[in-house]
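DM from R.C. (forwarded with permission)

"hey, sorry to bug you on a friday — could you get me a structure for this? deadline for the figure draft is monday and I only need the backbone to look sensible"
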Amino acid sequence: MLKKFFLNLLSSFVGAWIAMVLFCVVAVIVVVGIIARIGEDSGTKATSISSDSVLTLDLSGTIVETKEPGQFNFMALAQGDEDSSQALNEIIDGIREAGESEEVKAMYIKCGGALASPATLNAIRLAVKDFRKSGKKVYAYGDQLSMGDYFVASQADSLFLNPSGSLEIAGLGGTSLFFKDLLDKIGVKMTLVKVGTFKSAAEPYIMNHMSEPARAQLDTLYGNMWKYIGEAVTENRSKLNKNSLNQAADEFIMFKSAQDVKKAGFVDGLVYEREMDDIIGRLIDKKGKDVKYCTIETMAQLSGWGGDYGSKKQVAVLYATGDIAENSRSGIDCYKLVPKITELAEDDKVKALVLRVNSPGGSVFGSDQIGEALDYFKSKGKPFVVSMGDYAASGGYWISCTADKIYADPLTITGSIGIFGLFPSAEGLARKLGVTPQTVSTNPGKNISLFADPTTEQLAVLQKYIDEGYSRFVGRVSKGRKMKESRVRQIAEGRVYDARQAKTLKLVDELGSLDDAVSYAASMAKLTKDEYGVSIYPKYQPDVWDILKSQGFDTLNQEIGKIAGSCPDSYLVYQTSRLLRRNPFQAYMVPLEVKFN
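My reply, with the result:
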């Protein structure tokens, strides 16, 4: 028995030792692989394409402004929902390069329900339109065509739908959630101090319905944007008229057959996806099986646009994407962006700056710090141009308004010149939980507490602070846009505008793309097209999380899923904690999440 015991003990020890060795070996292999991938991704990839290639534009997944290191998303990973995003600048660059390439003969758009705001989709649509100007054909196909897909694919020479598919057209809009009744139930009260009749970012926390000014501005905003979309869709579809989208939405075309969609003139043919290779092949005089496709990523690598860091004459494109905050792991962290702006200002190789803004704003302090850094950049005598993406509102407009020129997509949402402060009181919640707050202070009543409503005296002080911040905002816009302050106050009040309306109000100078902004910045710096390079900041460096995701760690998903399976939906907790972590003083427009219904 004793011998058997020692044999079992020894075998267990040996087994554990072997397992540990194998684990270490596997770990080393994984680490080496990750290092190799990082080196590969950060270096220059030599790539090429075959003659008579067809560019594939895959409209699926989330489309972001530019490549960024991944953020670990515990819940998404656990649910298997980690999204593989595409970068807008890479898509535009790849399409541009393909249009100029002798090897690329056509484009194939595969519609798969891209997740993006209208301005992003419009930028892609316009790039497809430019591609067609080269004389090359564009064909598109979708099993199910979302309105976003259709917005882009409407530029195709021929558009095909699955015989069992459908077209989703239901208008343009967005839904806001209002939490006041819920907060009342749990004993949390929000106190709002603001300037701006239309400044509605905090309404969901103090009201249980949308205010009339907020609704009125959204009616105008959505109406203007929908009109542009209707005009854009019909410009290349001869069987459609300017009212076709509204008619389709009103008649519930999404519930009609593919045959009805074709009859109405929205698509040119009904085919199954397997037939598309032969259709594309006939387009370029090839058999379907011989068609060679190239990807957006490959074409962007061939172009290399945005990677001219060694050039002695650079136009720097600096991305400012997300909420403006301090010490933030995501979005626009002023403590990271300001040093970068300063660095570019002092870099003799950088001759001009294009700030690509896609932000609904955020912290007043953060916006002010970034604005001051941009003033410093201009003091060096270098051109400063802004290119607006989906949003450049509130704090996003604060950091944009002093540019030498502002470009915006026609569907950009901008303006929202206003400031608010939101102060929570959780005294009611504490008492519901059996907790009685008691405060001792050297200056009673002077401290704004989480466990007491602001006093009348405190509210007066806070309102004065907000008013002064608003005056600084108005003054900055007045100086940057060369307007009288009285005029700025007339069009401010926290109101949001689409870019076409903003242009008439002189809040935007030109409707155009990022490429247009870069070209103008270069011309201001007296640089010819052939002598300057474009460099994107911050530089993209894939992190370990990006590479782990690209390798597909299914086992990790399963294990994390076991842990997360019992976790409740944390949406409200997340939103509330995010609100409480913010600087209380905000130049912020609530993200409208404008989408095709």
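R.C.: lifesaver. The CA atoms of residues 352 and 383 lie 5 Å apart.
me: no worries. The two ends are 74 Å apart (CA to CA).
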